[in-house]
Amino acid sequence: MIKGKLWRQKIEKLSDLTYEAKDKVIKVVKLDEGILTKAEVIEVKGIICLEIDDYLESEIPIKKINKDEWDKLR
Predict the structure, then answer these.
(1) Distance between CA atoms of 27 and 29, rounded to whole angstroms?
(2) pTM of this prediction?
(3) Segments of the chain assigned E as strands
(4) pLDDT at residue 3 tops 70
(5) Mean local confidence (pLDDT), 40-52
(6) φ, ψ of residue 24 in degrees (nearest 5)
(7) Residues 6+ apart with CB under 8 A from 31
(8) Is 19 inside a domain boundary?
(9) What's the pLDDT tens digit per position in 6-39?
C-alpha cells in the first residue's frame, strides 16, 4: 500500500475514468473488464478495488481490499 496518498476520486463506472488518471493509482468500487481495459489504455499506475471479477488479468498492479480498509482510504 502506498502511504501518504489521498484517494479522492472513486471510479464507479467507465465514464468516471479519464485521462487525468494517467500515472496515478485509482480507487475502483467494482473492477470489470471495461474499466480495466480503459485503465490499461490510459496507463494508470495501479488499481485498488473493493470487488473484482475473478477472471481478470493485467500488467497493472491490482490490490483487492476489504470493506474496512476501503473505508479508511480518503
Answers:
(1) 7
(2) 0.82
(3) 10-11, 25-31, 46-52, 62-64
(4) no
(5) 91
(6) -125, 160
(7) 47, 49, 51, 52, 53, 56, 62
(8) yes
(9) 555 688 899 999 998 898 899 998 999 999 999 9
Amino acid 50 reads L
User: What local confidence, expressed as pLDDT, does residue 52 receive?
Assistant: 85
Q: Assess contact for 74 and 6: CB atoms under 8 A.
A: yes
Query: Residue 21 — φ and ψ, nearest 5°?
Result: -85, -5
Report d(CA 71, CA 74) in Å as an integer. 7
The answer as to whether 47 is a domain residue is yes
Assigned C-alpha cell, 9: 476520486
Question: How many domains are contained in the chain?
Answer: 1
Question: What pairing do the DSSP bridges indicate for beta strands 62-64 and 46-52?
Answer: parallel
pLDDT for res 4: 47
The C-alpha atoms of residue 1 and residue 34 are separated, in whole angstroms, by 24
Amino acid at 33: E
Does 2 reside within a domain? no
